[in-house]
């Protein structure tokens, strides 16, 4: 024993011995609660120990691996097995200090690591035909093998009875380790229904059930499921006759067969025989001066006569007129007979008048109108007609009369009426809604409407309302009015449109610190721009002098079109008041040599505390990776007393105090009370820990006031 700096120091030599475990001590390790198989390398180890004292350290290894370093003893351990499938053995050793040496126990446990799913296959009771189809039910049977853990279960046989294309059946096999394999038997196509076959004839028979040409018979088939594989070819019936028939057949891809008969085919290609006569007959010069009656007769040897033209009376004057008679048999064959050379003259000459140019669809012209007359006489010829006339006066419903005389002295007159002339364009006006403001601008869509009047022919059309929705300066909307005579008037209305609010930005001076706070007044200025109508007004600068959190200032700008924009500068925090702390301390906090220094926020200027101090607060901050303060964690404070360790050069810790911390939104710290008066002199370690396993550590010295 010797004195050193006023302290008593004992030098003790300790001899460490490896002591075998007491005979009745046992150590057992189990993997995944005794499971025989696992599909993952990560497993849970459980240790069961009997005897005293309990072990303090443990270590594990896989078969064929080296032992790792000792670690503190725990009854459970998450472990990773070695790679590759197979039986895996995990070895464990535990030990405790038996005063004169370590006492060690060992054990091992095995489990089969199997990640390979079983091999599964399937067979069909009936194979499909060459088209890939069945027309009966199909039974699917599954088989499976597993080389390592063995097959635990497999799907049973499945009968596919439903008609359908590309149906599938999924089978599943599970091995004893829980690996699952699936096998899909796809492409099972079942069609038990025969196709639907129909026949058509072309052309179709007429309403009497007859054709007068060859009849082409075609067959069509549909199969809603497997589809048609084959169908009878087309057949043409060329022989004349009644009630002939043709049979067709269709087969689908599943082998189902259907037939169809096209019956009732009646063909007659021969036209009927027709004749005609007139009454009265023409005179020796070939003319009649009265109406002429014409009649027809017909016969047909096969299908019979269906219809014949009735009597016709020719009452119209003319030279070499004719009447055609027609007979149709029931098959639609048509025969014609023409009675010609019918000449009749009962009428005086014909006179007509023309306007140039013609009136428009409204019956109006907008230029002078030239009127001319023409005359014809189908028999004796024209002798004279009236001369041309030009109408140049504006007015409605004016008229001109013309005259014609034939060689026999017959006189005919014709009046060209309804001549309406308007050469004056309409009067058109336009208006905007809403009207522009005092600056000549609009900030909403502008509806432009036009109105027109016309004193003579009246307004025929006017441009419809136009909505100006596109922003722009001096935009022109053209309006047009047309009167009924076709005269056109144009008018342009100019629109200035700006619907976009100005751009407003804000600036604060001085800027906030890293904690988003200022400790002086803050000057706020607003700036604005407008690219179209220009800025009319903007809010002036403002200075915030009041202390407070989350203060804001709103700036407003108005452009010349009346669009309003605002900008809000938020989250302005001003605090000019110094914080108040209630901690009684002295000196500068230190840690033993060789230990890292983790300074707590409320311990950053102290070297120790006396047990005579009242209870004081200790605390710290926690931050996210991006630097933001964590405010919603669950934080605990654990105070450990540092004790001498029985191990050479080591220390041990004893829990002296444990409590839950409180969060302060002012200091942004988690804090707790340190019960100095209830603890003895010594060195203490303070651990702040969050529920997300972040932690901060520091040491302090507690001493009695000298």
Description:
The chain is mainly beta. The chain folds into 8 domains: 17-113, Immunoglobulins (Immunoglobulin-like), CATH 2.60.40; 119-190, Immunoglobulin-like; 196-267, Immunoglobulin-like; 273-344; 350-421, Immunoglobulin-like, CATH 2.60.40; 427-497; 503-574; 586-703, Immunoglobulins (Immunoglobulin-like). It is 0% helix and 55% strand. The chain has no helices and 56 strands. Strands 3, 5, 7, 8, 10 and 11 form a 6-stranded mixed β-sheet that branches. The protein is flat and about 165 Å long. The two termini are 27 Å apart.
| Helix run count | 0
Helix percent band = under 10%
Spell out the CATH superfamily of the largest domain. Immunoglobulins
Radius of gyration: 57 Å
Flag low-confidence runs: 1-19, 578-608
Distance between the termini: 27 Å
Large-scale geometry: flat
Query: What is the residue-averaged pLDDT?
Result: 83
Indicate the CATH architecture of the largest domain.
Sandwich
| CATH fold node name of the largest domain | Immunoglobulin-like
Task: Find the count of extended strands (DSSP E, 2+ residues).
Answer: 56
